[in-house]
Every structure is written in C-alpha cells, then in structure tokens.
Amino acid sequence: MSTPPMTPPRPVPDPDASSAPFWDAAARHELRVQRCSDCGRRRHPPRPMCPTCNSFQHTFERVSGRGRIWSWVIAHPPVLPAFADKTPYNIVVVELEEGVRMIGNLLDVPNEEIVEGMEVVVDFDDVEEGVSLPAWRRA
Amino acid sequence: MRDRAAIVGIGQTEFSKNIGRPEQTIALEAITAALADAGIGPHEVDGLVKFSLENTMEVDIARNLGMPNLRFFADVAYGGGAGCGAVGHAAMAIAIGQADVVVVWRARNRGSGGRPWAKKGNAVGGEFQWFLPFGLSRPVDQIAMLARRHMIEFGSTVEQLGAVATAFRHHAQQNPGAMMHGKPMGLEDYLASRWISEPLRLFDCCLESDGALACVLVSAERARDLPHPPALVSGYAQGTGTDHLVMANYFTRDPLDSPGHHAARDLWRNTGVGPEEIDCVQLYDAFSPLVLISLEAYGFCKPGEAGPFAEEGHLRVGGSLPCNTSGGSLSEAYVHGMNLILEGVRQVRGDSVNQVEGCETVMVSSGNGVPTSAMVLRRG
C-alpha cells in the first residue's frame, strides 16, 4: 500500500494586534471591517490609526458581504506546493458595497466565466481548526 | 542638487542562471570594475549606498577593497524600487559635501539562489496575511492583478504587452551580455508561451539571474577630469503614493495611480526637464505591464495610451522613445533594475550596443508598484 502524496498545509494568517479581530470574526463566519469610531471611515487592511483623522479608536463592524469583482488573475504553475493541486486557480479582488476591497478566491465559478463587475457574496472557507478565510460565491 | 554629481564609472559581472561565485565576490568584482572604469582607486571611496535587500554589507565591501573610512553609508528600501533612489542618495551626499566618492552596487544571485516567494512559512503575518492564504503568492500574481485592471479600464491587450516584451528581446540581440542574446522572439512566440498568472505569460516575466553591478559617483567638477563623459544626475525623486503597502496594493482609491505617478511630479520639477526632452528611457520591467503603467505615470503617454504606443513600435531603437535598450529585466538580466541604470549611463556616454543617435538625456525608473524612484541622467 502506498501513501498518497501529502499536500503541504495551506498558508494561514498569523494575526497581529490590528488584524486579530478580523480573523476572529472570520472564524465565526462573520465579515467585519475596521471602522474609525471618530470619523466613521472604513479601512482595510486593519491598522492602528485612521489615516484621515488620526484616531486610534475603532470598531470592527459587520458588513453586507456583498460586492463585485474588481480584478482577478488565474494562477498557473509554478505555485506554492500547498496550491499545486488547485492550478489553474483564481484569485479575485472584490470591491464591497461598503467601498473597501479584499482579496480572496471565487468558489464554484469556472475561470473563464469570471468577469469584471460580477456580483458576489461572501462565504467562508474553513481551512483548518479555528481558521476560516473569507471566500466568494456568485450572488 | 541639480547636475551637481555625476556617474563616472560603471562595472558589472556577467549574467547567468548560476554564476558559481558568492554574492560578496561578485559585488567586489563589479565595484572593482566600476572604480577602474572611473580611474579612481578604492582608497578614495568614502561613501557607499545599497539596496536594503542587498546581502553584502558596507563593512565587508570596505575591508575587502581597503577603503580606509566610510563617512557616508545608507540604504534604500523596497526591493526593485530602490535603485534610482540609491543613486540619488549618493548624488545628494556629494552635493552637500557628506562624501566625495560614493559607490552604489547590487549583487544578487537570484538565478541560483531560489525564489523568495517560495520560501514563505505556513503562518504568514504582516501584509502577506492578506494575500498568501488565498494563493496570491508570487510577484507575478500581484502585478497581473493590476495588469488585468489596466485592461479593464483602458482596453489594453496581451498583444500590447507582447509588443513590450518583443521590443526588449529585439534589443537583447545586439547585446552579447544579455541572457536572451541569440534567442530572438516574435509576437507569435510570445503568444505561444505558457500562462504564469493570467493575463501574464512566461515572457511577461523578468529573467532569473545571477549577477552584480556597480556605479561610482563624484562631483560634477571632478567628473570633468575623468576618462568618460560624465552622466550628470540631473535629479531624482522617490514616491510611495497614498496609503501604499509594499506590494499588491489594491486597497487604495485608485491602485493604477502608481507610486511612479507621484514620483513623476517631483522628478520633472527637480530636473527642470519634461518627458518631451528625454531621448530614451530605461523603465523598470520586472513584468511587462509595469512598462505601460510607467509610460503613463511619467507622462510619456496619456492614461490608457501606453499599450497602443508600444504596439506602434515607439519603444524600439529607431522609434520615438527607445526603451530598455540593453534588453532590460525581461531579456538582459534581472538584477533589481541596476542594469537599467548602467544602460542609462552608456546611452549618455554614447557607447550602448543599441546607441540612440544624439542621445543626451535619459530617464531611468526603478520598480513601480512598490514604493519607487526615478532619475534623469544628462551628458555633462
């Protein structure tokens, strides 16, 4: 009996003080975006200070999870070993209704059907115990 | 600091996939060659500027070459975005009297040393936590995303990217030192190459090279007494743009408003010339779409017009704006753009293998899409 080849583990985020609330929410299958408590502007990726009003005060507010494809690529080999069995796979940038953009993967859509402006909705990809990545599906 | 310092010596090793010598050795070879070209001894060097990603250290350069004391040393960050900034720092130090003879170098065994993107661990922090878990792992993916957006907004095409890649390959055929010398490529060959990150193909990507290059700067006054026509640093500029990350910055209001767009305003103000006075350009080309974006950033083309401009042949020697005349990162070697700087010097001196007739003023840019830099060199 031969052992099937092991796919190395997929890279996972190593949260820091700024990003932990985002990833904690993702693990609960909630999409939350950092928002300044003083001027109300949203920002992503998270960081300690609002670049507009320099406030440190912020919340992570749940967003609609609806957006549109802003751009995308289709990755072909050579890629990281963890993704080798997925090629050719898509990576998309989604512009949320709330204005911020995020990187992710579009699930269950053939690569050739991806178009700019396609309406998508968030889902979550449970990649390992306690780690879920926002992912996207056709709306 | 306009025209106060000049590049007076250039030197390099050969380029190859596996040069077989350590980075420190090839750095010393390149610097030795550059100093010999300038007619200046190592004992006169009192300043060194490097890329922050450079593995060879100032102290090691100094104690091998016997430089008695360095009184100015600095490094410039952001990978391939650093080059013209490093030269600019050297020129600035000379202009204000912090140093008299400054060397800038880049030694990199990127061909034999492996792919940095393939060495990331499993748990990723910093800005990569927003990219790597989704498989956006390679520089080519990061730039392909911008290239796609350029296509969406302006209708640029893969054939236009091919026009960039084939122009530089054409130039490499005259350069015996280019890694792609003897390997001509037409548009059909380009279009037949495999996808790496759609919409980018293999030949949209720079080479994986080992090699080292260096240049020597002194004051414009001293430059007049040295063997070669001086390449005066008319001015340089750096730029990050607003709200930028290191790479893959899709989060700003307009990601196509590149760091180069911001550096451009300062560059033209600092140098007192404009795009219309530039005889040829050396534009950072880790990936072909960066050339289109930089042509627009620095005002050689209006937004969206760089693709057709490339397709019309303007970037080829004999065209209206010859670009990357040694073959560039796509077809000469990829050493973080240091070879573009040296080719800019050769064009100003008049001894390029693809010499642009009557060339007096050259613009060189460094990596765009990362915090960037650019400069103008002028024949002194």
How would you describe this protein?
The complex is a heterodimer of chains A (139) and B (380). With 139 residues, chain A is mostly beta strands. Chain A has one helix at 20-27; strands at residues 12-13, 32-36, 42-43, 58-62, 66-75, 89-96, 101-104, 119-128, 131-138. Chain A has two domains: 15-62, no CATH class; 64-139, OB fold (Dihydrolipoamide Acetyltransferase, E2P), CATH 2.40.50. Chain A has one helix and nine strands. In chain A, a hairpin with a 2-residue loop joins strand 8 (119-128) and strand 9. The longest helix of chain A is centred in the first third of the chain and has 8 residues, at 20-27. The radius of gyration of chain A is 17 Å and the shape is globular. The termini of chain A are far apart. In chain A, 33% of the residues are buried. The model of chain A has no long low-confidence stretch (mean pLDDT 95). Chain B is of the alpha/beta class. Chain B has a single domain (5-113, 207-379), classed as Thiolase/Chalcone synthase (Peroxisomal Thiolase, Chain A, domain 1, 3-Layer(aba) Sandwich). Helix content of chain B is 32%, strand content 18%. Chain B is built from twelve helices and twelve strands. In chain B, the strands form two sheets. A nine-stranded mixed β-sheet of chain B has the order 3-2-4-8-1-9-12-11-10. In chain B, strands 6-7 form a two-stranded antiparallel ribbon. In chain B, strand 11 and strand 12 (372-379) form a beta hairpin. Chain B is globular and about 55 Å long. Classes of the chains: A mainly beta (139), B alpha/beta (380). The interface between A and B is large, with 40 and 40 residues.
